[in-house]
TrEMBL record:
InterPro entries membership: PI-PLC-C1, PLC-like_Pdiesterase_TIM-brl
Coiled-coil regions listed: none
Keywords, comma-separated and alphabetical: Signal
Organism in which the protein naturally occurs: Streptomyces glomeratus
Name under which the protein is recorded: Phosphatidylinositol-specific phospholipase C domain-containing protein
Signal sequence range: 1-26
Length: 343
């Protein structure tokens, strides 16, 4: 049977789940050697009725927007309301309560939902929870990095893969561990979750706030390690915004640069400007490429064809993304759970 070039390309894209990459990786691929798909603002009720459905979606990254409400001493989950909750997290702490309870809960309840869902799926895929701290931490108000970590630890316990896990006993910074590709394999991370912290739009637009989430948590990690308490840290801070070279050099002092191994920025900016994204892959840093649909040729940001999603995954895997994100919540779990070789 004669197959046209166009048909062959479409068939190849649709069939690709584990694509062979051109960049040499370890004999046993690690977590940093893969490219997966994530969902932007997964707490949005328009995307998933319940947050447990976001967990069911197959996506390898789910985003939460969090406000520190220092008046009520609560961690609010909402897109634009710092004093209220507007989300699909429900008042459910046990598996049998999921998919049925009242929504619009705080971050603690979102974590309860994760813990309850984990009990139903103890060997689930590793999931990154990207937390945008919309108005930043408020350490003076009792909602700082240590309180965030205490909350996560109390709700999720040893489910969380932490900076201290990456360090193990062999490395003194995440940078050293990443460069040695000290990440576990994806199989070894089954049943685990990771937290990525990024600065939020409110704090970045606040002319009186020059100490954003990324630097605050970076300082916190450095100081925890110096005091012998790095195991208390639950999250990885991310360098936000696509740029060329090593963006840590211009943003952070030398004492905290090695504590950043997550990088997060717009996919089209990385690709269209010809940035050297191989640098992230070579050093085994985790690179989150957002708004994957916007890379030329643009595809739907909400409901592209399955073949288009697969082709976009392959394209950005070749450009060394670790996770690509968009608003593809309508796509099936069989697609959103796809894993490609990075590079």
């Amino acid at each position: 049977m004669r197959v046209t070039r166009q048909a062959a390309a479409l068939l190849g894209a649709a069939a690709m789940v584990m694509a062979a990459g051109s960049t040499a990786h370890a004999a046993t691929p690690t977590f940093a050697d893969a490219t997966t798909i994530g969902t932007h603002n997964a707490y949005d009720k328009a995307k998933y009725t319940y947050f447990a459905q976001a967990l069911d979606s197959g996506a390898s990254l789910l985003e939460l927007d969090v406000y520190t409400d220092s008046i009520s001493k609560r961690w609010r989950v909402s897109h634009s309301n710092p004093f209220g909750n507007d989300n699909n997290c429900e008042a459910a702490k046990t598996p049998d309560e999921l998919y049925s309870k009242s929504r619009n809960q705080d971050l603690g309840s979102c974590l309860d939902n994760i813990a309850a869902w984990h009990r139903l799926h103890p060997a689930h895929r590793p999931i990154v929870f990207k937390v945008e701290m919309k108005n930043g931490f408020n350490n003076n108000g009792g909602l700082g990095p240590d309180e965030f970590d205490a909350l996560v630890s109390s709700k999720l316990g040893d489910m969380v893969y932490k900076p201290s896990d990456l360090l193990g006993s062999a490395y003194s910074t995440p940078d050293a561990a990443a460069k040695a590709n000290g990440w576990p394999s994806r199989d070894a991370l089954k049943g685990k979750v990771l937290f990525e912290l990024i600065p939020g739009t409110v704090e970045m637009n606040n002319p009186f706030d020059h100490y954003w989430t990324d630097r605050e948590y970076g300082d916190y990690l450095r100081d925890l390690y110096a005091s012998g308490n790095i195991s208390k840290a639950e999250a990885f801070p991310a360098v936000l915004g696509a740029s060329s070279g090593d963006p840590r050099a211009a943003r952070y002092d030398a004492s905290i640069r090695p504590w950043f191994v997550f990088f997060d920025g717009d996919a089209a900016t990385y690709v269209n400007n010809g940035y050297d994204t191989a640098w992230y892959d070579t050093n085994h840093y985790l690179l989150i490429m957002t708004d994957a649909a916007g890379v030329s040729p643009a595809i739907s940001s909400t409901n592209p064809t399955d073949a288009e999603v697969t082709a976009r995954l392959r394209l950005l895997a070749a450009r060394h993304a670790s996770v690509i994100t968009s608003d593809w919540a309508a796509k099936p779990a069989s697609l959103l759970s796809s894993v490609a070789d990075r590079g």
